[in-house]
Every structure is written in structure tokens, then in C-alpha cells.
Batch of 2 targets.
Target 1
Amino acid sequence: MTIYNSGERDHMNRVGRSSRKPNQQLSPNATLITKKPTSLSFSPMASELSFQQSLPAAEKSPGAVWSIPDMLSAETSAYVPDDAAEPASELRDVVPRPEDRMALPVMSETVQSAPVIVETVQSAPVIVEAMPSASMQKRSTAGGMTDSAGHPIPNDTSSLTVGVDGKILLEDLHFIDKLSHFDRERIPERVVHAKGTGALGTFVAYEGMQRYTSADFLREKGRETPVLVRFSTVIGGRSSADTVRDPRGFATKFYTNEGIYDIVGNDLPVFFIRDGIKFPDVIHSLKPSPENNLRDPQRFWDFVSLSPEATHMITWLYSDRGTVKDYRNVDGFGVNTYVWVNRDSVRHFVKYHWKTMQGVETIDRFEAEQLAGSDPDIAVRHLFEAIKNGDYPKYELCVQLMSEEEAEKLSFDPLDDTKTWMEDKFPLMKVGMMTLNKNPKNFFAQIEQAAFCPANIVPGVELSADKMLQGRSFAYHDTQRHRIGVNFTQLPVNRPLSPPLNNQRDGAMTFAFNPSPINYSPNSLADNQPAPSDIPVPKPEYASGYIGRFVIPDTDDFTQAGERYRSLSDLDQKHLCDNIAVELWKCRQDIVNRVMGYFEKADRGFAQGVMRDMEKYRKM
Ligand code: HEM
């Protein structure tokens, strides 16, 4: 313990709170400092004046408000009751008026509304409530900054020590609160698609799609739906560079009247594999080696050499479509096949396409490598700045539709996500336009905590038997329960416009709850409420079969890969071959041989181009 024994200014003791009198006998373990520490300056903030008092008047904020920032654009303000100015009586104390809301806690002289703000859902059977009432909280705070438990913070810049240069006291609750919260500021990053960015906006339907789907958000021309989009790279960690070769994630969350609808796609139309059970393997092969945390292309090419179905994806990923510097210039693809079903239970397979209105733009590998070093966040910044400057990116949603009869006549399996559907036979049908016109106010709350899931569908949309989609339907919410927590759907960014109404209760971090004590059904005590929804259910689909681990009969791994190669310009073919060769030539010979066998089957010229470029690198 360090104690100043004499001549101390009174306020020093108030900082250190030593109860020992200056000339009192010291214990053998105590350090006696007799010299006055003249080098130290004492901040009046620490004792006599509060920080708040030392602020110039102009910096004082009118109200100390800790608010959940507006998560969505005005269109989604159903989170905030329309009558927010006059909240329902039981919520009046805790729901602030819109004008009282601020994004950040600030120091201020007076507290105009409750320090804890909650936003609730209109006609809420689910209640978000703070205890005790706001009026009591007003009485208990002196104004200005408060800690997580609402205690006033008169000093936020000096920790509580015994004397001026003494050790910090365990009782410094504010210090512990501040640092321990900081220690936990990160949640686990997404296991894939960790680096990304997002924006809010609106989707407007061009036409009613009732003929094909009963989905309410596509019911009529002009129908507007608020959206959140997150763009991402797949393999790198949360701080990795934007331009490295990778598919780009293009995930869209529609806040519809019938619940959340997520289209979780990529900027390339096909995928590496067709059965979700191989997903951890393809990702492991692309991620750094567990031995030394280094990325090693040989691991990926080894996987590819034993997964011929990846050949088509290689012709996309290793073309310059795999290197991008601006999310405004990517198309999006649902990749997997969904089903649209109308009110008469007529089903169509459907594939989604987002067409960028800014035009597709790519960069070559040399520019990508240079930017990865000089400007690693370029794509994130471009999107943010464009929206900030009012230059709103637009993407047109198109669909390809296929009847079950048409599907049966095809030479390949249309539910295989390594395949595209021919656009001359299944033309793109325009569905609507999405405009991204609002940046998030808080990246962590609105983008990092966003939870997309391909199984988040609405009535009028079903999952097809696409094996990848089936696999995906499990993985996303599973990872989100781990990454964010079991109540992740209660976070404003993930909350549906249509309030959840069921018998689920509790779990960590419950803050929205159904006040009914009857949390089971069937029940008579609450008139069997909540009752099942009376939404029309489509006729059930017939399914039967042997249970087994099957490979689809029509794999055809090479036809579309060859067609894709031949559709490229000479320059794009050259880049594709060179981008592959620069990695492949370093791989073990048997790996090279297997991969070259696949390229040969796709297109002889393709294989020759890669071979030629590998020779070039061998001789260098
Ligand atoms: C069975 C195969 C797949 C599995 C198991 C899988 C799993 C995952 C997981 C665990 C995440 C992280 C989600 C989160 O932490 O919130 C994720 C994110 C993502 N996946 Fe997949 N994935 C699969 C296939 C695909 C395919 C085929 C696509 C493209 C069509 C895709 C596109 C995305 C996108 C865009 C994200 C990022 C979503 C966001 O921005 O939060 N995934 N995937």
C-alpha cells in the first residue's frame, strides 16, 4: 500500500480515501512516501468538481438517453408505435418521445427521460419493459453520465486509487464495469463471411406476383418493403482485405408483414459443392491450415481435385469475377433453388437474381493484390460513402421460374447448385427494385449482430429439396444461437415487423416477453390463446423414398463449366487460366493431374491454357 504521510492536500485523501491519519504508525508492508509528488497535477475533476460541471455549456447535452438506435429506415418504424408520442399507459414511463432519442449516452445536466430506453412493438403481446418505473429512476439519478446500473459517474477519466500513485481499489465499480464490458465487446465472428458491411433500404415490387406466389410482399405493384443488405467476403477473418479472390456474400433481409424473408446469396451463380455435408470440408480447405494458420492453395486444390462438381465454380471464381473492389458493382444470386407456391397450391421452382444497376465491375488479380495492401477496406468504404453522399445503389430483383414438368425434362438436375438454368429457356422475370439509401448508425448493433438464414421464408415460398439448401436451413440459426445468443431474434435488427406470439419463454438476455402466464397450448385458461394462425396452407406435397446417402443421378460436372469458359472473351479466358495456373503449378503432381483432367473434360482449350501458364511459372 502506498500512503502519502504528510502535507497532503485534503482532496488527495478524498481521491485515495485513506483512513490513516498522516502520522499514524505504518505497518511493515506499507510503503512510506515522504516527498510531496510535485510532478503530479491534480485535476479538480477528480474531487471537488464533477466532470459535468467542468464542461462548457455548449457541450452539455439536453438529455441523458441511452437509446437503442433506430435500426431501420422510416418504413420499419413499426418497431416504434405510431403513437409514440402517447405510448400506452403501462409503457408511458419507459418509452421516450422520438425527439428525446439519441444514439449515444452523453453527459448532461438534466435527465429528461428515463436512462433506459426500450422500443416496443405495436399492438404488442410481446412486451419490452424496464423496471422500476422511469419516474423512480429520475429521482435516483443526479444527472449526467451513469454506469450500467444507473449510478452517477462524477469522474470517468481517473481510476479510484489509494493516494495519487497507489493501487486501484477493487471497489471501483465504475472502473470494473467499464473495463469488463470492454473486455467483452466482441462476439465470435461469423465462421464464414466474417468481413462485411451493410446498408438499409427499400424494395419496391414492379408487379403483383400472385400468379406464382402468395407472398404478401409481392402482392401488388408498388408494394414497399424495408430491407437490410449485408455484403461480405467468405473466407477471411473480420479484418481481412476486401479484394482477395473469394465469392462475395449478398444477403438480403426483407421485413415483410408476414415475417422476415431472407435471400442469402452470393455474387456468383453457382457453388463449389452440391451436398451440404461437404460444406465444412470445402471451407476448411480454403481457411488457413490448422498447423500454422497459413492459407495454402494446395489444400484447396487437393479438395477440388477430389470434387469434380467444383469445376463449374472454378470457372467463375478464378475469372476476374472473383476479384471485386466495390459492392455496388456486383450482381447477386440466390444460388439455391426455392419454390414459389400460389393460392391454388401451384408450385414453381424459382432462382433469384439481383442485377446491379451500376453495372458489374471487376478488377484483375494484380490490382486486387495491390489494393489488399494499400486499401484493404475499399469495398466497405465505397458503399458507405456512396450512401452518405446520396448516391444510392440500386439492384433489380429478377427470378427464373420452372415448373415441375419442365424440371423433369432437363438433362441435369435443376436443384443442383453447381448448375445455372439456361436464360433462353427460363428467361429472367423482373420482380422489383431495391434501393440502399441508409447507412447503419451503429455497425455492431445493426450489421455484426444481423442474423440471416435461408430458411427464413414467408408464406408463398418453400424450400426445395436442393441438398445444399436443406443443409443450410439448419446451419444459420444454429450458429447464431452460438454467435449472438438464443434470443438473437429479439435484437431490433432481427426483429420481425409482425410480433412473435407463441409459448416460447426465457433464455439468456430475454427482454421482450409475452406477459401471459399461460405459456402452453392447448389451454382453456387463456381461451387457447395464442391460437394457430388461420393462414391458408398449401396442399401438402407427396414425398416417399428409400432412406440412404445418395449421389444425385445427373451429376454432369463439366458441360456447364465448358460453356462458361467458351462464353468468356479472349482476355477473360487468359485471366482465368493465368489465375488458376499461378496457384496450381505449385501443387503436388497428382493433384495437378486430377484437376487438369476435369478442365480437359470441360474444354480442351481451357486445359491447354492452364497448362501453358503453369509452364510459364515453372520456368520463371
Ligand atoms: C450447407 C452449406 C452451407 C452452410 C452449412 C453454410 C453456413 C453458413 C454459416 C454458418 C454462416 C454464418 C452465419 C452467421 O454467423 O450469421 C453463413 C453465412 C453466409 N452464407 Fe452460408 N453456408 C452454406 C452455403 C452457402 C451458400 C451455397 C451460399 C450462397 C448462396 C451461402 C451464403 C452465405 C452468406 C451470404 C452468408 C453471410 C450472411 C451474412 O451476411 O450474415 N452459404 N453460412
Target 2
Amino acid sequence: MQILSTSIEEAYDRGTRWSFPRYNPGDFPCVPIRIPVFTDALSRGFNGRLQVDSLWKCGFGTADVYDCQVRYSEMQQMDKAGQVNKQLTNTCRTLRISDDDFQKIQSLVYEKAGINLHDGKKSLVQSRLSKIIRRKGLEGFREYYNLIVRDQSGNHLVELLDAITTNHTYFFREDAHLQWLSDTILPDILRLPDVQRDGEVRIWSAGCSTGEEPYTLAIHILERCNFPARYRLKVLATDLSTKVIRIADRGEYPEERLQQVPASIRQRYFNRVRTEEGTSYYRVNKEVRNQITFRKFNLLSPFPFRKGFDVIFCRNVMIYFDREVQQRVVSKFVQAIKPGGYLVVGHSESLSGVEHPLKYIGPTVYKKSSAD
Ligand SMILES: C[S@@+](CC[C@H](N)C(=O)[O-])C[C@H]1O[C@@H](n2cnc3c(N)ncnc32)[C@H](O)[C@@H]1O
């Protein structure tokens, strides 16, 4: 924890790691498994879809209410165990948010995180925040909003942003980018004069969520890119959400989160750990973890980096920003990328409508001129 006071740049430079308290099952964010409609048997007793999207069974043997849909088979198991009604009763008690209070939350989240909570997000905001409001014993959204804006510590704001961010991610997501990395980006970067001089390749996973993206990048580079031993790989992985960055730093995942990970990779880069309760999870091994520095960082903040990055991956993050915020963030990325370096955005994103000097190399892959 003490390393939180170290600057992001310093920590990244030194490759510092910091440790968090042990895993708390309720901490783990959702595994988004969708079941849009329940069968008659299960839908009896609760009203259509209601807040079933808030149920999540975490991988450590504890069922918890979280913002995700639950697997049908799990619902059946819980139903048999008589837990469904209990869970649903808890989950159903969503408070109603007025238009005025929703606007206040919208503006606050936009100002602090750049996240554009359009009107279609009202029910999501309502259900996610209801849980916090109930837990705190507050009366409603107005009281909660006032608590956040008056809180000098900023802790309530952190909790709000943790609840509001969408952290969906998985290992080997958008693997076409991995192909780009091994075939084009990395060979190109290894030819850059300052990479050759400094002997380090600097990659930033900006908006890394629970860590699957930076771990995937490091594993892919070690495994598939013939990464020369004389170079050092340095991955900086950051996210706005305190909750997800802690999980990312721990690098421990329940088995269901490794579904996209080929067996050979699982064997080589993960260690299976059994808890005393008999459940097991997978921990990313040291070889990979040592390449990555995790930090909490808001992309709206001034960038503190003295040295540039060879590649920035910012995938499925700017989708939550409006054009104005995208423009601000992309302009900062352009400054932070070294001449000849790359920016990779998510497959459903593009930089159209955003002004930038980068060259389009392929779908969602952009390059900064070596002369800039
Ligand atoms: C959907 S996840 C994407 C994870 C990963 N990049 C991927 O593609 O799988 C989006 C992440 O962006 C983060 N995020 C949203 N606004 C941010 C901001 N202003 N600064 C930093 N991270 C932000 C969220 O906390 C969330 O974890």
C-alpha cells in the first residue's frame, strides 16, 4: 500500500509492485454471462427480467450480488438450494432515481471521469447505486450525491466511479491486435533507434480493467514474438477504478475467466492455487507479472510521463467518452507516444471525428510518424 504514494512514473521506471490485502470474494467484478430470458419455472416469483442482471456467483464458492447476469445453470442450482428468492428479494429493492438526481450524477461522473452516462444508462445507474445507498443506510440518491460532493477524502467518489465503470474484459480479447503486435508493431519498434539504445520496449495498457489485457500482451510477446533476450519489456497498466486495479495487480483469476486461454499457455504462464476451502484459482506467474506495473490512473489527469511509450493500447475505454473527451485523451496519447510508435484502440472504436496526426495502418491501429 505504501507504494501508492510513489509517483506513477517512478513506479513504472523501477518496475515497482505493491501488494494488497488478500482477495475478498465479493470484490471480484462480474463475469458477464448473459441469459436474457428465464424459463417459466424460474420467472415465476419474479417479474420478468427485473434486477436479475445484478446477480453474480463469484468463482470462489461464494454467491454474491453484483452487476452481472447469472448463468442459467447457476440460477437452477440456487433455486434448488432455496436461494433464489432470498437473492432476488435483496436485489429487487432498487430505489428510484429522479431525473434531477440522475442529471447530477451524470454531470459528476462526466466531470471526474469523462464517462458519458447517456439517458439509456439510467436504470443501470439506479440499480448499481441503490446497492451502495442501501448499504450506507442513506435515504436516497440526493443524500448520496450530497455525501460524495461534500466528502473531502474523495473516498465516496472513488466508490461511485468503481460502481459506475464497465469493466468487462477477458484474456486474448480482440486477438487480431495480437497478430498486429507480433507481425508488424513489435518488429517495427525493435528497429527504433532509442529502443535499441535503451534496450526497453515500453507499452501502456490504458484502461486495463482487471488485468487480462496487459497479461495477455505480456504473455503474447514472451510466447509468440521472439522477443530478444537483450531487451526489457515494460508494461504499464492503469485504470480509473481502484477496485479493478487491485484485482489486476493480484493476477489471480477463477478458472472460468481463463476460458479463452489455450491450455499450453495456461500451463506455462499460470500457477494453480488451491485455497483451504478447496476451491482453486489461477495466478499469473512471476515471469509475466514482473513485466507489468499496475497503477490507478485517470485518463483525464495530466500525463506525468517523462519518457514516451512505444505502443499504447486503449481498447474499449473511449467508447464511454463523448467526442470532446475522446479528443482530449487522444491528443494526450499522441504526445505520449514516441515518434514511430503506435496507438491501438478497440475494434468497435475508431478515431473518426477526432483530430490527430497519426497514420491509419489497419483497422483500429494507428502509427505516429517517425519524424514527429
Ligand atoms: C471495458 S473496460 C476495457 C478493458 C480492456 N481495455 C479491454 O479492452 O478488455 C473499460 C475500462 O476503462 C476504465 N476507464 C473508464 N474511464 C476511465 C478514465 N477516465 N480513466 C481511466 N480508465 C477509465 C474503466 O474503469 C474500465 O475498467
